[in-house]
Amino acid sequence: MDKTISIFSNINTKSILIKDVLVSKLLNKGYSVIYNPSEDALLNICIGGDGSFLRAVHDSKFSQVPFVGINTGHLGFYQEILISEIDTFIDDFINDNYSISKLALLQGIGKPKTNEYDLYALNEFVIKSKNSSIVHLDVYIDDYHLERFAGDGLIISTPSGSTAYNFSVGGSVLYHELKGYQLAPIAPINSRAYRSLMNSIVMPDTSILKIVPDVDDLKNLQLITDGNVTDTGIAEEFEFKIAKRYINKLVFNPRWYWINIKDKFL
């Protein structure tokens, strides 16, 4: 049986030191280590903060090989393993003392005049202007016109991404394995001229969200995928839904999610 483990690390000095310690311990346990994605690996270990975890997920093209994170950053909602727990983590992994959580992905489909394209996000998609001006967006849920939004932009987030950008604009926290996703406004305008929802909306995972920008806003729009700006190709329409794909995350402490909520927010 191949005992290969892929390791992803940021370039922070602390992360590099921990990576060297981890590699030595894994080699002593009979594992081989690589530093690139591989579908033949047993595990993807991400060293750093949540940004490192997201980069590893994208670099691996949303691999089905399970992910786990060692936290050397600050927030660490995806990074369950503390530096002091590395030996325990290795022993628990060897002895199968863990569960696997399937984290939903969002699929975003952009529809410019030329070729349609699709993208995937673990945390969120954001539609906003390039210069912080007001954007006007028609919002449809399952082909029903819900609102004509006016404001800074919209965030479409997964349950596991609900504690990221979504939370900072007042969106709801969704349990990471909940079946659904969320639409949250960024600085919505509600006046005589504009009627925009002021709060987030939670949709079932079967719903399809369509966003149609005002034609005058097309050249000024940007789509941000898990923090990375994507060239929208002046898309006349965006469609978002829960993807058929997902990622696997190892969970060693069944209460880790609630521990995170209390430690980070309370």
Would you write up a description of this structure?
By secondary structure, the chain is α+β, with helices and mostly antiparallel strands. The protein has 2 domains: 4-97, Probable inorganic polyphosphate/atp-NAD kinase, domain 1 (Rossmann fold); 105-244, Probable inorganic polyphosphate/atp-NAD kinase, domain 2 (Tumour Suppressor Smad4), CATH 2.60.200.30. Helix content is 18%, strand content 39%. Strands 5, 6, 7, 8, 9, 10, 11, 12, 13, 14 and 15 form an 11-stranded antiparallel sheet that branches. A 4-stranded parallel sheet has the order 2-1-3-4, with helices on both faces. The radius of gyration is 20 Å and the shape is elongated. The N and C termini lie far apart (44 Å). The model has no long low-confidence stretch (mean pLDDT 93).
Question: Could you write a compact summary of the structure shown?
Answer:
It contains 5 helices and 15 strands. The protein is an alpha+beta fold and about 270 residues long. β8 and β9 (about 145-155) form a beta hairpin.
Q: Using the coordinates above, name the CATH class of the largest domain.
A: Mainly Beta
User: Can you tell me the residue ranges where pLDDT is under 50 for at least 5 consecutive residues?
Assistant: none
Overall average pLDDT: 93
Tell me the series of helices and strands, N- to C-terminal.
Answer: EHEEHEHEEEEEHEEEEEEH
- Assigned CATH architecture of the largest domain: Sandwich
Q: The CATH topology of the largest domain, please?
A: Tumour Suppressor Smad4
Query: Got a strand count?
Result: 15
- Total number of helices: 5
- By CATH, the superfamily of the largest domain comes out as Probable inorganic polyphosphate/atp-NAD kinase, domain 2
Rg, rounded, reads 20 Å
